[in-house]
Design goal:
Distance between the termini: 49 Å
Strand order of the largest sheet: 3-2-1-4-5-6-7
Order of helices and strands: EHEHEHEHEHEHHHE
Number of domains: 1
Largest sheet: 7 strands, parallel
Bound molecules: 2-hydroxyethylsulfonic acid
CATH superfamily: NAD(P)-binding Rossmann-like Domain
Strand content: 15-25%
Number of strands: 7
Structural class: alpha/beta
Oligomer: single chain
Radius of gyration: 17 Å
Length: 251
């Protein structure tokens, strides 16, 4: 069994994936911006008796991403799966009221970070002759919503990239999957609004997905037999109908 790379593993879906893949015996290569969180993750994972390689990486920084991949110790090869999880949303204003710095952070993390990481890891996967790239898309990549402008565009880019990658990688034995969640209660809304109270309201009277629910879907995709590729999974809470409508909207 080879190892699994997870970007943005310090919290939310990334952290839940780390726990699930560790539980099933995979060695882990993880990164995030918050090193203290990574250290505590590595401590929590000790119980599973797996190897963990972790490093502080800002996915917006091309040099740091490439150095991270280069520094993966030989003992962690082969790399079976790359989970491109790191991503964020900032703001929910109409485009003309939005912050250009926020746009830059979303575009540089959600799109460019995925590109840097995927390019570097594909060199290794092509050499190994197998691998699996799992991108975290979003329901927002399928349907835009008011104020979602740049965030939705970054996730639509991931949807497009996932399809294109599958074509680039035909005959390489490297699978490409996109897992696209709807409402998941993580730090997502807190980061988007920079406001805890406003973030809480997003999930009021709704039972949102947990990070663990999404991690289970990712784990399922990653553990299919080698001839099976799951192209895309949209996963939402039962109470959410699409990107703009949930149970609350009917009341
Ligand atoms: C997160 C889902 O609907 O809040 O990507 O944009 S949504």
């Amino acid at each position: 069994m080879g190892s699994v790379i997870i970007t943005g593993a310090s919290s939310g879906i990334g952290r839940a994936c780390a726990e699930l893949f560790a539980k099933s015996g995979h060695d882990l290569i993880v990164n995030a911006r918050r090193i203290d969180r990574l250290e505590s993750l590595a401590r929590d994972l000790q119980q599973y008796k797996i190897k963990v390689f972790f490093k502080q990486v800002d996915m917006m920084n091309r040099k740091e991403v490439l150095e991270f991949v280069k520094s993966i110790p030989q003992a962690f090869h082969p790399i079976d799966v790359l989970i491109n999880n790191a991503g964020l949303s900032r703001g929910l204003e109409p485009l003309d009221k939005g912050s250009i710095d926020d746009w830059q952070e979303m575009i540089d993390t959600n799109i460019k970070g995925v590109l840097y990481m995927t390019k570097a890891v594909l060199t290794i996967m092509r050499f190994q002759g197998h691998g699996h790239i799992i991108n975290l898309g979003s329901i927002a990549g399928h349907e835009s919503y008011p104020g979602g402008n740049v965030y939705c565009a970054t996730k639509a880019a991931i949807k497009s990239l996932t399809k294109s990658l599958r074509m680039d990688l035909i005959r390489t034995n490297i699978r490409v999957t996109s897992v696209d969640p709807g409402m998941v209660e993580t730090e997502f809304s807190e980061v988007r609004f920079r406001d805890k109270e406003r973030a809480k309201k997003v999930y009021q009277n709704i039972r949102p997905l947990t990070a663990g629910d999404v991690a289970e879907v990712i784990h399922f995709c990653a553990t299919r037999p080698p001839h099976v590729n799951i192209e895309d999974v949209i996963v939402t809470p039962t109470q959410q109908v699409n990107a703009m409508m949930n149970d609350r909207d009917y009341k």
